[in-house]
Specification:
Strand content: 15-25%
Membrane topology: Single-pass type II membrane protein
Structural class: alpha+beta
Subcellular location: Cell membrane; Membrane
Number of helices: 3
Radius of gyration: 19 Å
Distance between the termini: 64 Å
Protein name: Sodium/potassium-transporting ATPase subunit beta
Strand order of the largest sheet: 1-3-6-5
Number of strands: 8
Largest sheet: 4 strands, antiparallel
Function: This is the non-catalytic component of the active enzyme, which catalyzes the hydrolysis of ATP coupled with the exchange of Na(+) and K(+) ions across the plasma membrane.
InterPro entries: Na/K_ATPase_sub_beta, Na/K_ATPase_sub_beta_sf
Order of helices and strands: HEEHHEEEEEE
């Protein structure tokens, strides 16, 4: 037993082959986003959750992190303490809550943010991006932040909580450009990661490389 323990690394799991691709989650933390755009108390929980989640991405918080070279992995295998690439909340622009403090909920065009779980050592190939599709009969207009829903490679690899202190996942925000005719109907939206080797179609895991949620807006 003692000999086996000597082979373990406090910072990195010895075996990491069970999860080759990350699972995805959304913020606000609900797969059923239902609210009346005319009632601030109705959507206040979503706004509060987004604001709380994005606090770690505040420009003032991210200023202590490094500006990295876009499009390139930031490999730091030889560094005992890893540095962190900046991801400022201003990068999600109209979904940052900096100009519109309701994140679009007051005007019936809500923002939903997607993030991927951390996986130590993950280096997705290609140029991953988030693609959203409507699973409802009605087509939906959407706007992505950053542009085209890209997930830059400079945020990979992640080295673990102990040595990569302060690391934050890159985000993709989508603003649902709902119109009056979209109200009072349940809309189903699926988000998938595309453009890389990350898995997004495993029927045994509905959150592996994708996430589906429902939106119902009334007024």
């Amino acid at each position: 037993m003692w000999a086996m323990l000597q082979t373990l690394n406090d910072d990195t799991p010895k075996y990491r082959d069970r999860v080759a691709s990350p699972r995805f989650a959304i913020r606000p933390n609900s797969l059923n986003i239902v609210f009346n755009r005319s009632e601030p108390l109705d959507y206040g929980q979503y706004v509060q959750h987004l604001e709380s989640f994005l606090h770690q991405y505040n420009d003032s918080e991210q200023a202590k992190n490094d500006l990295c070279m876009a499009g390139q992995y930031w490999e730091q295998d030889e560094e005992p303490q890893k540095k962190v690439c900046q991801f400022r909340r201003s990068l999600v622009q109209r979904c940052s809550g900096m100009e519109d403090t309701t994140f679009g909920y007051a005007n019936g065009q809500p923002c939903v943010i997607v993030k991927m779980n951390r996986i130590i050592g993950l280096k997705p190939s290609g140029d991953p991006y988030i693609n959203c599709t409507s699973k409802s009969e009605k087509p939906l207009q959407m706007q992505y932040f950053p542009n085209e829903g890209t997930i830059d490679r400079m945020y990979f690899p992640y080295y673990g909580k102990k040595t990569h202190e302060g690391y934050v996942q890159p985000l993709v925000a989508v603003k649902l450009l709902l119109k009056k005719e979209d109200y009072n109907s349940e809309l189903i939206v699926e988000r998938k990661v595309e453009g890389s080797n990350l898995k997004n179609n495993d029927e045994r895991d509905k959150f592996l490389g994708r996430v589906t949620f429902r939106v119902l807006v009334t007024e």
